[in-house]
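S.,

Sequence below, as promised.
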Amino acid sequence: MTTELIDELERRAARFAAVATVQQAISATISLDEAYREIYKAVASVVDAPCFALMIADPVCEKFHAHCIVVDSEERQGESVLDFPNGTETIAKVFQNGVPLISSKPEQWWKGTIFQVAAKREVQSEITAPLIYHARTVGVMQVLSYKTNAYDSHDLDLIMLIARQAAVAIENARLFAAQRYEQKQTEAAAEIARLAMRKVTVAEASHSILRILDDVVPSSGKAIGVMSQDGHTLSCVAACGTCEQMEGIVAPAERSSVRVAWAKEEPTFVENLREKAHNPDRVPEEPAITIPLVARDRRMGVLVVTSETPQLQTGPQVDALLRLAPAVALAIDILLLSEDEQRTHARERILAAALATMDQPVLILGVDAKVQYANSAAVKEYGYDPSEIAGLSVDDFVVASAHLSRRQTIPAIPQDKALWTGEHIHRRKDGTEFPASVTLSHIRDASDNIIGLVIGIRNLTEERKVADHLSRTEKLAAIGELVAGVAHELNNPLTGISTFAQLLLEDRLEGEQLESVSLIKREADRAIGVIRDLLLFARKTEARDVPVDINTIVKHTVRLRSLASRSSGIEVHMHLDESSPTVRGDEQKLQQVLLNLLINAESALHDAMVRHLSVITLGKSGAVSIIVSDTGHGMTPSVSQRVFEPFFTTKPPGEGTGLGLSVSYGIIQAHGGTISVESTPDVGTTFAISLPLLVEEGK
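The prediction came back faster than expected:
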């Protein structure tokens, strides 16, 4: 018995260590490649995994992409890793139903592909697990072994535990990647806008624009064509990569390779750019996307982006090009204005229109640091009316400016740098504050004199929340490791104490000796039971559907909180139905609900004069009721109506997430039951759970 318990504790400790590894990867890595490597390291540290595959579903083209492939403990590299064979039965089945599988006869769909494993050995065992993030399956993870029957149910539980954390790691890495990519696009749009304000030709600016675009969306080739004043011909003013030979081509718009996009005035994908080109010998034979450049409802030109493969039909790269195309069109429109006065007035109108459509606040200041223009996003963010915000000083927005001079608030930008970036705390009209990432750039006239300042603002509140969430996740991982280690270390001496006490009881003891040894045996066994309950609750397993004794869950959970209750001076009363009512469901999730109710009750009793907590189970009419009542401070009707709403909490900031009762509500509903609350201020609160009783077959 002792050996089995130690083995089980060691297995549990391995689970916690694996979870800690993945959760640390979540908080420490923001790169997808780093997250994939950490996930594989966690898997390989706990099960035999010479071969491993991580497949992410593409919701657009309804295919899988193999993002991480390990064969014989070595990661496969190369672009061809993305070409994943679609339609394998096991992977599709696990992805669709979200249920993991253990197989001793893998399908071996990888034969003849880049995923080919060792030629002289065949894979004998396989675990296929879904990657689930917020009830949404984002991909599938496969672990393969050359050993026969290499995996058991414990390994499956462990892999599912890692898979759930892996899904979070992947989604967090995607979030950070998307934020970085969006920021990169914003900076590219700002750089293109600055190009339009310089004294350069259209051709010079177009070459710079292509370099900016290639940094955001790399491709085999790019070209910019500009429409002539008569509106009939397109001239390629700049080209790079495989499109370099196109520079200088002049062709009628109706007979050029971009005629379809030009006629429809919308982005168009062509499988072969050369096929209908006016000068086919100078046009690459590649797939391409052609995007009309439209400004002030007038077609200014066209942007051509080619690729060796048809990868530019959909996806984030196309979205980035479509977001940047208006900025390119506006820049070309400004540069094409011939007269200085006309150029100045048109530039103000066009930039105002462009800034008005941006989803991030932008302020334009004069040399006196007062606002001359604010886009609609800035008006919305700061809460001022458009007429109020004009003329305000930067000191009205930046909290730090109360302690810093204006020169420190708006630092000088070195001549060799186009931008200054930093972080400030900004204040809205209503007095609320938010952290902001600030980008500053000067506006210069034709003589290179500074005539103003452009300030781009990005609200960092959501990013800070993500960072705080990752920090809390890392702390929870450390706590998990600590719990597993402490339980393991305590259980060994407690088991020895219990064993030797049992040996002493077999001797002929009398009087105080017998009573003392019996007390040692009883208390040691009670401590072992507490550790077992703690590990049982802390263990994360896949959702189960088994018979559950409600009285047993109540006893275990109340015992788990006994020390906290005694320390707070709370009297706990249990009245359990003697018929031992049984339901069907997941004992871990039901215990989570009950523990959450007990913790909330203990919090409500903190300042109460009378501290009574009762837990009652009652089976009748085909259902079992679990009633948790306290004599705490109670709740008002307006609060009790919202307790099951996500993120609603009455606790101070940092002490509650507002998710406990909403998660409990979902768990009870998933078990076919109901949960309700009745509360009276200064009297107490009662939560009532009703679950359908288990009906045995034949009854």
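Residues 461-505 form the longest helix (45 residues).

Coffee later?
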